[in-house]
Design brief:
By secondary structure, the chain is mainly alpha-helical. It contains ten helices and no strands. It is found in: Cytoplasm; Nucleus.
C-alpha cells in the first residue's frame, strides 16, 4: 500500500461507489480489531480453530481495505490518492501493532498497551469519514492547502511575538551557563538584525497571503473535470507543500546569533518557492482574469522584500 501504484482499472470508475466501499471496509476492519482484542482480553485463550478463524477474518478485512484503495486510479489526482493511501496505511499499521501487542502481552489480563493499540485501530478506521469527498481532487487540494496555511499562520504568529520590540527571544528558557548573562550578544537581536528580520517577516507574511489567496481561488474556480485540471490542482498542492518547510527554515535562521548569509540563503529559497506557486497559479484554470491582480501584487511583494534582504546582507558577501 505504501509504495504500490494503483492501476487505471478496466471498469469505469465511480467515486461514490469507491467511498461507500472504502467506508465499509474500514468499518469491518474496526469490528475485526475489536473481536481480536476481546478474544485475547482474558483467559482462557481461544482454541486453535478459533484462532485460525480470527486470523482469517482480520487478514480478509485488511486485504479488502488494500483492494479498495487500489481501485482509486491515478487519473483522479495524486493529492486525493496520497490522502487515501495515508489513511489506508495507518489502518494496516494499526492492525499490525495490535497483533504484535497481543502476541507479546501476558494472557492474565487486558494490558494497557492492548487497549491503546485497539483504540489506535478504531481511530485510524474513523479517519475515512474525515477524508475530503467533494469534487474529486478539488476537495483534497483544498484540504491540503488549508493544512499548509494553518502551519504557516502559526509560524508567522510565533515569530511576530518573538520580534516584539525589547522582547527577549529566549525569554521562555531558564537562565543557564551555556547561554551566559542576558547581555550576551548571542541571545539578543541588534538594530541591524531587526532591520534585516523585518524584511524576512515581509516574506513570511507574503507566504501566508499567498496560501490564503490560492486556497480561495481553488475553492472558487477549481475544477476536476479534465485530466489537465486535475494535474494543475495537484501541481498547486505539491508546490504549496514546499512553503511551510521553507518558512520554518527561514524562521529558525532568524533567531540570534543571526548569520546574515544563512538568513539570505533561506529567504532566497522561500522567495523562489513563492514565485513558483504564483506562476503555477497564474497559468492554471483557478486564475481567471479576475484573480490576476493579487498574483501581480504578491509577486511584487516577494521581490520587494527579497531585494531588501539582499541590500541588508550585501556587505557580508
Amino acid at each position: 500500500v505504501a509504495e504500490g501504484e494503483p492501476g487505471e482499472g478496466r471498469e469505469p470508475f465511480e467515486l461514490p461507489r469507491f467511498w461507500d466501499a472504502l467506508g465499509q471496509t474500514f468499518q469491518v476492519t474496526s469490528q475485526e480489531a475489536t473481536k481480536l482484542s476481546l478474544a485475547f482480553s482474558r483467559p482462557p485463550l481461544p482454541s486453535s480453530e478459533d484462532c485460525r478463524k480470527l486470523c482469517e477474518d482480520v487478514q480478509n478485512a485488511i486485504l479488502a481495505v488494500a483492494t479498495v484503495y487500489y481501485w482509486l486510479p491515478k487519473g483522479q489526482g495524486t493529492t486525493l490518492r496520497k490522502m487515501v493511501r495515508d489513511a489506508t496505511t495507518e489502518v494496516v499499521e494499526g492492525m499490525i501493532q495490535l497483533t504484535d501487542t497481543i502476541l507479546n502481552a501476558p494472557v492474565e489480563s487486558l494490558s494497557q498497551e492492548q487497549l491503546i493499540s485497539t483504540g489506535g485501530v478504531w481511530e485510524a478506521c474513523e479517519q475515512v469519514s474525515n477524508l475530503p469527498r467533494g469534487e474529486y481532487n478539488q476537495a483534497a487540494v483544498v484540504s491540503a492547502l488549508a493544512a499548509c496555511l494553518g502551519v504557516v499562520k502559526d509560524a508567522v504568529e510565533e515569530m511576530e511575538h518573538a520580534l516584539v520590540e525589547g522582547q527577549d527571544p529566549y525569554g521562555d528558557i531558564m537562565e543557564d551557563e551555556e547561554l551566559g548573562f542576558r547581555g550576551n550578544r548571542d541571545t539578543y537581536w541588534s538594530e541591524a538584525d531587526r532591520q534585516l528580520l523585518s524584511s524576512c517577516m515581509g516574506l513570511m507574511k507574503a507566504s501566508k497571503a499567498c496560501l490564503k489567496k490560492v486556497l480561495a481561488a481553488v475553492k472558487a474556480h477549481g475544477k476536476a473535470e479534465s485530466p489537465e485540471q486535475i494535474a494543475q490542482l495537484d501541481d498547486l498542492a505539491d508546490i504549496a507543500n514546499e512553503i511551510s518547510p521553507s518558512v520554518d527554515e527561514l524562521a529558525l535562521s532568524m533567531y540570534p546569533p543571526v548569520n546574515p548569509l544563512a538568513v539570505r540563503l533561506n529567504a532566497a529559497k522561500l522567495a523562489s518557492v513563492l514565485k513558483k506557486v504564483l506562476e503555477i497559479a497564474k497559468t492554471s484554470h483557478v486564475c481567471p482574469p479576475s484573480e490576476e491582480g493579487w498574483v501581480q501584487f504578491l509577486t511584487g511583494a516577494v521581490d520587494h522584500n527579497m531585494n531588501k534582504v539582499k541590500n541588508f546582507t550585501q556587505g557580508q558577501l
